[in-house]
């Protein structure tokens, strides 16, 4: 905390960043770094640890030491228990910290409840990655509604794209509170790629996994969405059929959610062409993206990252609140029907023209400077 010659603190605003899951941590660490570089801001950090292992690897990477760690995760947690526990525990922290502003990111239970606990105390809320809408409250579930709830309480809405800013305007969010900043995931991605270039030893083993496949083309796969649990066995079957081509190596870091693991254990055929691995540390995942030919995912963040590296993404969801990649032609919404997943992947692997049309490096989600824009606005009070 900077002090003047008379020992008087010059900090004019105390903010509390709240996050709990892997994607929030990835997307907020650049913002926390930028806020901590602002002379007039005291940035405190509360992690709920809605995720434990996947959160901790990002804390280690970013060097962020939380001021509060609620350690809230229990295996297979229900939304009810998670939401209730978050509200009580976050409220306690807010009462101790008494921040001038709370910062939440995205659409998770932690983000929604963090905004609610702040609202209950009349603490202003900044929402990073505001305005994403699929228009369907069941896809993504429960995230579409979480984002809408946060929008009703926040007074600073950091929209990553023009599409997201427009969605907020259509809902009547006041113009002066909407800021189009880019998505901070691109800041995290580019910073991590640059660190990797300078120090390749940051990776812990992904090259060995990929090198096992020799000259075969690499397909990176992730799945975890709650609304896809019923479809996940079919998705596993589709991945198995793609692997059976013989000319690809599938690298699949499996999300620790027990529902995802059960579906994969039941329905993913055992195959030398599939490397089923634990969730990768972020630098390793960035390296995997960089070395992949194709990405199959239902993840939000991965949809945003892959186009920056020119990697075509097949989005295994029925709708997306991130249409920008699809409009740009670098991502395709293929749903969860196994036959469609196989046929779309086959087309990209067998038809160079179709592949080239999607593989243009393009970054519709940001330029890598979103965090600085956000920190400036917060430091200047909007
Ligand atoms: C949560 C978010 C979702 C986000 C996703 C990112 C909500 C409602 N959902 O979903 O928006 O896209 O995170 O991954 O907030 N687990 C571990 N270790 C970990 C993380 C999770 O074992 O490091 C297991 C636990 O059994 C946990 C389960 O995964 O109970 C589910 O975690 P949870 O945060 O409830 O939901 P996600 O499906 O991960
Ligand atoms: N990611 C990672 N390791 C992995 C898989 C993904 O670090 O094994 C990163 C990925 O680069 C992206 C983020 O996790 O930044 C996405 O998280 P997730 O898919 O869990 O959540 P979503 O973005 O769908 O909310």
UniProtKB/TrEMBL annotation:
It catalyses: UDP-N-acetyl-alpha-D-glucosamine = UDP-N-acetyl-alpha-D-mannosamine. Gene3D superfamilies: Glycogen Phosphorylase B (3.40.50.2000). The keyword Cell cycle does not apply. NCBIfam families: wecB. One of its GO terms (molecular function) is UDP-N-acetylglucosamine 2-epimerase activity. The keyword DNA repair does not apply. Its EC number is 5.1.3.14. It is an enzyme of class 5 (isomerase). Belongs to the UDP-N-acetylglucosamine 2-epimerase family. Keywords: Isomerase. This is UDP-N-acetylglucosamine 2-epimerase (non-hydrolyzing). Pfam families: Epimerase_2 (PF02350). Residues 34-378 form the UDP-N-acetylglucosamine 2-epimerase domain.
